Q: What sequence folds into this?
């Protein structure tokens, strides 16, 4: 084979690797393990674009490198296959989502195979496989069967809790439970019937049913998680979302808030993601206390505050519009206004309510409360800046010290009052520094922290409040009113939820006649005839959310075929946790938080031995697309104006499919054929300049998306340049974490590099020709410089910098006409993780019988990197005047003699004997005359 024929090479090696199962991994206690994982993809109908493989290429390079370094590498791939798009497509076409999902998966696998990834495909699964979701259902059961014990700081079986109830009731139990859990004695527990007991237990179970206010999206017919709602509309589709109370399954992730927060310290993740999780968890320390209403009912309003030291500055209370006391305390005069306000506030999402500081609004309830610290009577308002689900849904407003209270007070002309503590007005008081300054009685003169502690002690003594730590994070709503998700392993007996037995799992998705809610608004599963247990009890009709299956998949890869357990003890103890996880940062407060939560739970119940799933994580940046635009005349929509003259017309830009454009020049014929409505398109072309007579498109860098017609398919790149070029090129584009636009400008250079590499091994006539001669010092230096760079780069995940190092190495070896086996063999090995196909081919041409995949990565030898000579700059009276080369082992006197005798130095010293000459070895020579 004369020329570098990537098509042939890549196809044949991909086949060989597959046939020999070279990437198949087994437990091997003689080797250290390395678990390298990509966030598995959702197999969408659009297939992969060139942005998707970016992270996969990086993790593949590391996996290949680690294998060559003697690690037993687990590098699997699978599919996050439940989800909305397949279901939407099913609704439109009647096609079963399982069918589309399978088609899409096959397409993805084909595309991935073309790029030469070293995945162990024998471990592949999709979260929608019944064999897989059987275990998702099993984990759900475990969550239902456990509660969280704050004393032991771990999940414990519900049976333990009921034993304690029987003995002592729940007064002494320090467990994570709902706010509204009633207190009861052992006797009371014993007299409860099953339904009453279950109602109590639901307040404790880690998976529980409750009436919660949810984000309901009528257009999608489902509930959405907070992170699936952006600016009041659904993230997918952009449909309006309203707040609604529904009976839903939730997971008590809040029980794990403290551990999720603290353990961030032990994982090597990008600081930005950790910070997002910290903010999402939102721990704040403060106090809760009761204010009583100033009427004959003495209703107690519980508020949560982080600044109890400002209690003397409170000038009003504010309740969330949804607060249960609103209806009760509102006076008849204010009833109409309050009702109207509650109606409008209801439909604003929490996010909007929190972030929107501009539109201050609220209504006075007509009621008053008493400040327990000073007996003052203060008005009670409602406003939507107070969130129902945070803290207690009620705040004590201190407008002189809190920005939002301040804005509210200014708007409604409520009094401001600054408190004194620490002997002075606090520095962090609201910048406006307005309001009368008042004395804080027994808190006066205390530093802030001390004032808080004193106030809390006072509250506790009076039994009207206590210290409290609050988390912004909520329990995770786990029900979705969808078809294409995991069915719950739950049925109802007299309305009480019951679990299916393990041998009834997987509970498979039923066949339905349409993937839509029923007429009465029940989820699609309610359409299934006989969606009941064998004994005739109705099954749960909700399904689990998309993140259920992705919260534990990394364990399943360790032992994917296990029919007895979700993972065996042996597999799990060997593989432990993911050593390197690569994927998008957009999952910071979704998948990455839920996966940590499930891992901690599985750890608590002794099913896994790690507390964190992903030790090290890197978030790859997005590869953006370069969109092209044509400019449509507004008054003649059939006519398009070229870029440089468009400003003379009234135009609207229109995205055009980028394959119709080359170097910004539009292919007019192809454009007319692109869409039927463009068949008769007319053009106003460039009138002057080098592009005269052409149609020039505008361009912009934006997200790569079908919608913007700027998608580049990796298959096309592979066809034109080969997978090795694609792999190298994607790395070459820039640091992995960076966002960067796709451009093919440099791809030729990378392709040329591979051809040049190929030619190093071949003579002029194209015959394979390497020599067995020993390498020269120079050749070794070139080689070991590259080995050193490649090794260090991979160890710090800097892939883009290795590519030019390979290029330099090949250029220099070409210049040296080096075709020596001892050099080229090692060069092949360091290129192998990046460009495995060409490396494998050359490796075999060199006569090796085994695969480059399992060859040893070469060590670099620092000795070869030493310079044998040095070019000294020579400074004469402080000015650089000359340069001279000396072998590094030249004695100082010899250097001195030669320097002074040299013509160039003589010219500046004018033959005079120097006053001083200083030689700093391998640095500089200084002469003073
Ligand atoms: C009085 C006060 C004075 C407050 C002051 C702050 C500053 P973080 O840190 O986020 O936990 N708050 C309490 N519950 C709320 C709710 N449901 N919706 C909106 N705001 C609420 O914030 C806690 C503070 O946010 C609490 O402390 C309360 O206002 C307000 F100089 O009480 B603060």
A:
């Amino acid at each position: 084979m004369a020329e570098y024929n990537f098509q042939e090479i890549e196809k044949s090696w991909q086949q060989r690797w597959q046939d020999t199962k070279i990437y198949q991994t087994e437990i091997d206690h003689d080797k250290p393990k390395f678990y390298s994982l990509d966030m598995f993809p959702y197999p969408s109908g659009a297939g992969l674009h060139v942005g998707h493989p970016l992270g996969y290429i990086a993790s593949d390079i590391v996996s290949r490198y680690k294998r060559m370094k003697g690690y037993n590498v687990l590098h699997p791939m699978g599919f996050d296959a439940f989800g909305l798009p397949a279901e939407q497509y099913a609704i439109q076409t009647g096609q079963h989502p399982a069918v589309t999902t399978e088609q899409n998966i096959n397409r993805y696998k084909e595309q991935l195979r073309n790029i030469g990834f070293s995945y162990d495909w024998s471990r592949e699964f999709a979260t929608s496989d019944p064999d897989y979701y059987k275990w998702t259902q099993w984990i759900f059961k475990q969550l239902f069967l456990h509660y969280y014990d704050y004393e032991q700081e771990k999940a414990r079986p519900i049976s333990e809790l009921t034993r304690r109830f029987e003995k002592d009731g729940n007064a002494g139990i320090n467990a994570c439970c709902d706010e509204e859990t009633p207190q009861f004695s052992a006797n009371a527990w014993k007299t409860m019937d099953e339904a009453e007991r279950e109602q109590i237990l639901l307040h404790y179970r880690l998976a529980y049913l409750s009436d919660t206010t949810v984000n309901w999206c009528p257009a999608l017919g489902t509930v959405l998680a907070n992170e699936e709602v952006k600016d009041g509309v659904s993230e997918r589709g952009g449909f309006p979302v309203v707040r609604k109370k529904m009976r839903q399954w939730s997971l008590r992730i809040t029980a794990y808030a403290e551990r999720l927060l603290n353990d961030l310290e032990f994982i090597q993740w990008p600081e930005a993601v950790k910070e997002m999780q910290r903010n999402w968890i939102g721990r704040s320390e403060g106090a809760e206390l009761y204010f009583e209403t100033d009427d004959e009912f003495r209703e107690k309003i519980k508020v949560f505050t982080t600044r109890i030291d400002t209690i003397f500055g409170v000038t009003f209370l504010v309740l969330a519009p949804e607060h249960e006391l609103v209806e009760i305390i509102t006076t008849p005069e204010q009833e109409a206004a309050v009702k109207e306000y509650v109606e409008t506030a209801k439909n604003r999402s929490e996010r909007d309510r929190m972030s929107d500081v501009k539109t201050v609004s609220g209504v006075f309830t007509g009621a008053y409360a008493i400040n327990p610290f000073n007996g003052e009577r203060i008005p009670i308002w409602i406003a939507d800046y107070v969130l129902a689900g945070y803290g207690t849904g009620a705040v004590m407003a201190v407008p002189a010290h809190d920005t939002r209270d301040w804005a509210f007070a200014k708007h409604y002309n409520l009094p401001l009052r600054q408190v004194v503590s620490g002997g002075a007005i606090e520095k962090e008081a609201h910048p406006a520094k307005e309001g009368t300054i008042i004395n804080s009685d027994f808190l006066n003169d205390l530093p802030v922290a001390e004032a808080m502690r004193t106030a809390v002690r006072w509250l506790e003594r009076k039994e009207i409040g206590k210290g409290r730590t609050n988390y912004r994070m909520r329990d995770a709503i786990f029900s979705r009113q969808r078809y294409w998700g995991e069915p719950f392993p739950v049925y109802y007996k007299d309305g009480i939820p019951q679990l299916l037995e393990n041998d009834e799992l997987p509970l498979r998705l039923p066949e339905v006649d349409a993937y839509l809610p029923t007429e009465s608004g029940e989820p699609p599963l309610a359409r299934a005839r006989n969606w009941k247990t064998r004994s005739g009890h109705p099954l749960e009709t909700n399904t689990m959310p998309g993140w259920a299956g992705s919260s534990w998949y990394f364990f399943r890869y360790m032992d994917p075929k296990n029919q007895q357990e979700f993972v065996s003890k042996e597999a799990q103890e060997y593989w432990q946790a993911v050593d390197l996880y690569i994927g998008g940062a957009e999952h910071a407060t979704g998948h990455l938080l839920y996966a940590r939560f499930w891992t901690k739970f599985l750890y608590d119940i002794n099913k896994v031995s790690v507390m964190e799933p992903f030790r090290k994580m890197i978030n790859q940046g997005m590869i953006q697309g370069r969109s092209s635009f044509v400019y449509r005349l507004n008054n003649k929509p059939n006519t398009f104006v070229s870029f440089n003259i468009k400003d003379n017309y009234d135009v609207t830009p229109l995205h055009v499919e980028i394959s119709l454009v080359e170097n910004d020049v539009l292919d007019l014929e192809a454009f007319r054929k692109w869409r039927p409505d463009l068949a008769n398109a007319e053009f106003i072309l460039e009138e002057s300049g080098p592009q005269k007579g052409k149609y020039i498109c505008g361009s912009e860098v934006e997200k790569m998306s079908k919608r913007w017609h700027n998608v580049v398919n990796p298959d096309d790149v592979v066809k034109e340049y080969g997978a090795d070029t694609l792999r190298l090129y994607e790395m070459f584009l820039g640091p992995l974490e960076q966002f960067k636009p796709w451009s093919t400008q440099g791809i030729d250079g990378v392709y040329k590099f591979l051809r040049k590499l190929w030619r190093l091994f071949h003579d002029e006539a194209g015959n394979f020709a390497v020599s067995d001669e020993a390498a020269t010092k120079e050749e070794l230096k070139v080689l070991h410089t590259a080995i050193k760079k490649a090794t260090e780069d991979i160890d710090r995940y800097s892939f883009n910098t290795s590519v030019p190092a390979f290029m330099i190495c090949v250029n220099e070896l070409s210049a040296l006409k080096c075709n020596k086996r001892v050099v080229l063999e090692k060069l092949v090995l360091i290129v192998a993780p990046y460009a495995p196909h060409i490396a494998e081919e050359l490796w075999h041409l060199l006569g090796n019988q085994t695969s480059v995949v399992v060859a040893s990565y070469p060590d670099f030898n620092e000795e070869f990197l030493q310079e044998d000579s040095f070019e000294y700059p020579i400074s004469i009276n402080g000015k650089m005047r000359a340069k001279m080369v000396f072998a590094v082992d030249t004695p100082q006197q010899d250097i001195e003699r030669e320097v002074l005798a040299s013509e160039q130095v003589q010219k500046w010293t004018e033959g005079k004997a120097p006053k001083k000459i200083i030689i700093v070895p391998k640095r500089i020579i200084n002469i003073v005359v």
The chain has a mean pLDDT of 93. The first helix runs from residue 6 to 19.
